Amino acid sequence: MSSAKSAHPTPTGAHAGEEEEMAHHLSPWPIIAAFGATILAIGIVTHPVVLFVGVIATLVGLGGWVREDMHFYNHPMPALFHHGKAPNPFWGVILFLGTEVVLFGALFAAYFQGRTTALANGDPWPQVELPYVATLINTIVLVTSGGTMHWAMMRIQKNDRKGFLIGLGLTLLLGAAFLAQQVREYIELIHEHVTLGSSNFGSTFYALTGTHGLHVFGGLVAIFIVFVRALRGQFDKDRYLLVEGAAFYWHFVDVVWIFLFLVIYQGVI
To answer: Has residue 127 got a pLDDT over 70?
Structure first.
């Protein structure tokens, strides 16, 4: 007489890993986060209450997703997790960065259009003197943070946990310093009456730099999550996929800022 247990034996080995991964991919949290982000975007152009609901839903979705991912870190890596030579999440990061290129491409196009129109009408562009030296120093700070993030990546590939943590910590400090300087610059420009609605320059300037600033903040959150998980010993030379994704994203943020600096602060393009 067979029991329920024997009728549904517990999977082992590779099959167990595959079923665990399949269960992981049935997670509702990414859908909740995406739904919240959609409500958030609608709320930006409709009503603050809608915006607030979208923010809460997004944070709940992301929080559940991170908590679940931290639970699954020690599960075996099944074969279905890969497509070709690279793991599927790697291709997911590449696809995500592709959408980011489109986003910043549209913002740069708006900036170029506004600048062309203003100069054709004989209007000054920009209307104020931007803090070139301070921004140059801030650019060096952000690029340096990209170097420390790359160094952290190299350290975990060599199982150097101490060096890995130091690299992540330095990246967090440098990224936070960059954001602090950007906030300070915003305050100074607002005192000079350069606001989001003051002129075409103001709207495109804040749209570009503000969107980039939000990406820097998001990158810092991702690196902080990596840092917390690193303190728990959840990464080694064989398991560092999340670290790689965060590093790719951070390097993308660096490259975008270099273009921003050249276009807005130097006007070389």
So the answer is: yes
